Amino acid sequence: AVFNSTYTTKEQMKSNMLNVLLTEPGERVFKPDFGVGLRNYLFESFTDTKSLEDRINDQVERYVPQVELTNVELQKDPNSHELNVSIFYKVIANNELDAIKVNFSPDGGQNASLGVGGY
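-> structure tokens emitted (119 positions)
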């Protein structure tokens, strides 16, 4: 099989969340507004993390209505091109808490940690 199957609601929500976070706007043919586009923020020298947080909240609310965000933490070092995003959420179907942490580094590396922060 080319794709790994998900077997639980929790796994599917993680997959949906990562899809929304990592997809660039305009990448989907009939959904030009779909995606947060975290990679776009990596080399920008922005200090207003509120706009990125609002974008994440809007995209998750629109495209992953099965979860409720409980907290979004953003860390962007203005002197380096590192971006760390931690998203804590609740799966509405079963009230299960979970989290995703996505880290981007200047060497082009990307690391996604699933189920961080004691979730």
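The helical segments are 9-22, 38-42, 49-63.
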